[in-house]
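Sample intake sheet
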Amino acid sequence: MPSLAKIFAYSFGASVFYQCYHFIGTIVYCEGISMEPTVRDGDYMLVERISVYLRRIKKGDIIIARQYCEHDNCNFVLKRVQAIEGDSVNYISPKLRKPVTTYIPKDHVWIEGDNKEHSLDSRTYGSIPYDELEYRVFLRLWPVTSFGWVDKVFK
């Protein structure tokens, strides 16, 4: 029978791991081409939640957001924040195929993929509530040849 100290140590370790994963961040595998060339299909990225919790997401940040959830099964998108609450955005509406100007409401952000031709983003579904943001991407881990900080500005 395990000792009380061992049970406590395992419980404490599991709790620390959960807290780090839930509140600090994790590693994510990226699929798709909507953020190329900044983030490529197959990249592994280090992401953090502290900026989201503290509401310190800025224009230019790359974020992961919940797109929609059905029966606790969520789809996520990885996009760049182009505008924050109070900003106005000019864009070509994919639905109307003409220029449109929209205002970003309180507690919302406007997100777009860097690869505009292959991205479903706020130009299609509008601004998203800040509460849908999950992570801020900040470091590419893989491939090793591309290891480094993620650019805040798409070039």
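Comment: The mean pLDDT is 86. The chain has one domain: 26-149.
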